[in-house]
Amino acid sequence: MHVRHLTVxxxxxxxxxxxxxxxxxxxxxxxxxxxxxxxxxxxxxxNWRAVFSHETSLIRARAAVKKLVALGFKTAKAENRGCNxxxxxxxxxxxxxxxxxxxFALQAARARLVVTYAPSGNxxxxxxxxxxxxxxxxxxxxxxxLRRRVGARGWxxxxxxxxxxxxxxVIWRNVPGTAAEGTVGAAMAAGFTPELELIG
Length: 200
Known about the structure:
Elements lengths: L3 E4 L4 H5 L13 E2 L16 E8 L2 H13 L6 E6 L2 E8 L5 H13 L5 E3 L10 E9 L2 H13 L6 E6 L2 E10 H13 L5 E4 L2
């Protein structure tokens, strides 16, 4: 299945997904290349994960986990995503609840950590859902910094996503179209360059 990425000006979602709003201007659509993720490892977790950071090597990942354990996050672990991306996560079925995610993020903030969340591996899009991208980065390190900036602005259900060599992004998956419409303007006002991926 091919999907389209549209760089969004303020009301582009209304134009692209038929919400019937006023005219808007969007950059030409570009087709996502399905084979770009060949180095990625499949996500098999059935639970949501709190994401603390992304590290570029197993050595760095182990050091990051050790620091988190010392701070009291005893079940933190490294999740090998492939493409030299080791996500430092804490997994719990309770993170499926918005109130729990919010409370845990505030707990992490007291330790000066920005936590975002990755959904379970079996999460499925609903009719009308879109993926929201918050910009691009050429390295994993830069993409993780972008993730922190996005999370600090309140978009916590976001994580680093690999597109192709030298092209990383931060993604919010399976967003209802009505919610994405408001996100576009807010993200642009915050200095991000949002894109939409129309699912289906």
